[in-house]
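Predict the holo structure. Ligand: flavin-adenine dinucleotide.
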Amino acid sequence: MDAIIIGGGPAGISCAIWLKKLGVECVVLEASAQLGGLQTRSPYENLWIPGVQGKTGQQVAASLADHAKAVSVDVRLNCPAVSVEEQQVTTPIGTFSAPYLVIATGSQPRTGGFTASDRVVIGPGTGMEALNVKGKRVAILGGGDNAFDQARFVRDRGGKVTIFSRRPPRAQKLLQDMIPDVPVVVGPYKADQSAMTLNGEAFDAFGIMFGFEAVVPQGLRPDLENGYIRVDRFGQTSLPGVYACGEVTDYWHPCVTTSAAHGIQVAKQISIKLQK
Ligand SMILES: Cc1cc2nc3c(=O)[nH]c(=O)nc-3n(C[C@H](O)[C@H](O)[C@H](O)COP(=O)(O)OP(=O)(O)OC[C@H]3O[C@@H](n4cnc5c(N)ncnc54)[C@H](O)[C@@H]3O)c2cc1C
């Protein structure tokens, strides 16, 4: 085994497909039951991958999984890296070790101290879409693109939505202009999850849209930058033999295409190193 990839999102799968095609033995350890990472929680059409049209995020995730299967990538699902020490990765099914380690663990929505429940959804996507919002009062907390996108989707499904943003919203003007009818309350607010109130006003559901944070595996201590793993232009971290790609770094604007490209860059670097 030459390389262990932790995380089977677009970055990790792309890295694995390229490693496989470059003749490098690798394994993908994926914590969840399916490949595709954050794309698995997007029922929305992905309009942002050059050359790919008419697919939802979930279909993009399925395509990535199909591609990994077609080239026989060794994938272990339901296999979280519980701890990582140097190039040794401990999982519930045993320990993996290899000279190269690729951290592709991506990011997760910030909770802001809220706990997910049947009325409180953390982050955009499938959780929000599963809420029955018709005629219901929904508070969206946050002021970024996801807050305005999700507010629009709730409104379009017949919900009575209000956005609460502590600071002036930083969402793209384009998205803000799409929902002129949705009230936006700017300034400090007091949210009480157990009473489901915001500033004392009752709501049926909260959508928490506080952005994302990097998921850094336990035990690994690479240099970070703003909470994300710092990498050089080859995807090398501050730790020898440890690379990182995709949204766990803050190297490029986060999206499927850049995450995949980052995984490919790392795969190529590892294959070059192995040839030396
Ligand atoms: C609702 C939604 C809609 C989106 N829409 C678009 C879009 O239209 N176009 C676009 O380009 N981008 C979109 N994105 C962003 C895109 O999904 C991400 O940029 C991309 O998935 C990041 O890829 P990644 O592989 O770096 O990380 P992730 O997708 O986060 O994948 C990381 C993987 O690592 C796994 N993992 C984490 N910790 C461990 C561990 N300890 N052990 C093993 N596995 C672990 C996770 O389970 C996950 O599968 C969207 C995101 C969301 C949430």
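The longest strand covers residues 160-165. The chain has a mean pLDDT of 97.
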